[in-house]
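Exam prep: given the inputs below (a chain plus flavin-adenine dinucleotide), describe the expected output before reading on.
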Amino acid sequence: MPTSREEGQAEPDEHHPTILHRGGGGDAAGGSGGRPRQVWVPGPVIVGAGPSGLATAACLKARGVPSLMLEKDSCVAASWRHRTYERLRLHLPRCFCELPLAPFPPGTPPYPTRDQFIAYLDDYARVFGIQPHLNARVHRAAYDAAIGFWRVTVKEDSGGDGATAANTEFLSRWLVVATGENAEPAWPEGVEGMDTYRGVAMHTSSYKKGDEFRGKNVLVVGCGNSGMEVSLDLCNNGAKASMVVRDKLHVLPREILGVSTFGLSVFLLRWLPIKLVDSLLLFFTRLILGDTEKHGLPRPKIGPLQIKASTGKTPVLDIGALPKIRSGEIKVVPAIQRFTENGVEFVDGHQEDFDAVIFATGYKSNVPSWLKLNIYG
Ligand SMILES: Cc1cc2nc3c(=O)[nH]c(=O)nc-3n(C[C@H](O)[C@H](O)[C@H](O)COP(=O)(O)OP(=O)(O)OC[C@H]3O[C@@H](n4cnc5c(N)ncnc54)[C@H](O)[C@@H]3O)c2cc1C
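Solution:
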């Protein structure tokens, strides 16, 4: 907890955040009212209490460096706890997902479940004594070159309903942005008639499990890892799933010859050029999965690792959706032309009614909305 320091008093505490100014309930961005509460932080300010933020805080702590973590949600690992579906397992083997200084506990399976990963992150925070400042959304961070400090402004929501929100400005020499690439759901823009559709429409960030869709006709928009897995989950729960495939994509098996495809790629890339590794991956994929193009999933000409390196787009690791596509239990449909009141019209002109549409259209970072570089200099 911050210690308090009256103006004109001795230097701030070297190890704990110190309140420099108690604040008058005003606007830290310079609006009307009094000055905001102002807190001096002796170490870095870390924004985000997900795996990246927790790992940073733990590594700093191990070197004796204090830090202050700010988290907009009411818990650590909020993206995993609140914005993932129940059937989710790590896509990558646990050795690639564990955080520094603390392996997964003995007995953890090679691909931990969502709940196991959350429990691991909770334990990690506890073991390293990381106590984030919760319900504290950073809505502005800017470097003040005149004093050599970051000014990080937080709207604190102590009541959880926004009613008691107050502003605090944290001052620190260092800022660590750990808010992830998945901070906000991305929705498709400019699709005609989206407002007129009367069925259930949701993003995969709110999807929990398929049983509420039993017997329903559901359209999944998007065919990345989330789109494939949600389609599979719907199918396993008795829903009729159709999946929109608009672009070419690489679907790879999760494992090749008993080794994780990701691990194998990392190993081969140490010795071979990326183009050759891509050719090998696609050769084995063809043997294991067959020709995906035949089932409406055309492959790009460029290999999966080259695409990942140049655009950041991750290939799909199949965990069971492909056999359902082959058997027709998951129907592949083309891009949407427009929404109708009860469903959609596709670009090939055919129309279909759907009880629900689930947007597996990805996420985006929220950093551009709050990180301002050097506006005081
Ligand atoms: C469906 C799905 C499956 C995935 N599977 C895997 C996998 O198998 N293996 C893997 O390694 N990765 C996987 N990922 C990627 C996963 O997001 C990352 O591995 C990991 O969660 C990223 O950690 P992070 O700390 O960078 O971001 P996050 O976990 O997203 O944490 C960011 C934190 O910052 C907080 N925050 C955001 N904005 C603000 C703000 N303005 N102020 C304060 N706090 C803020 C958020 O509430 C959140 O708690 C998957 C992602 C998805 C969506």
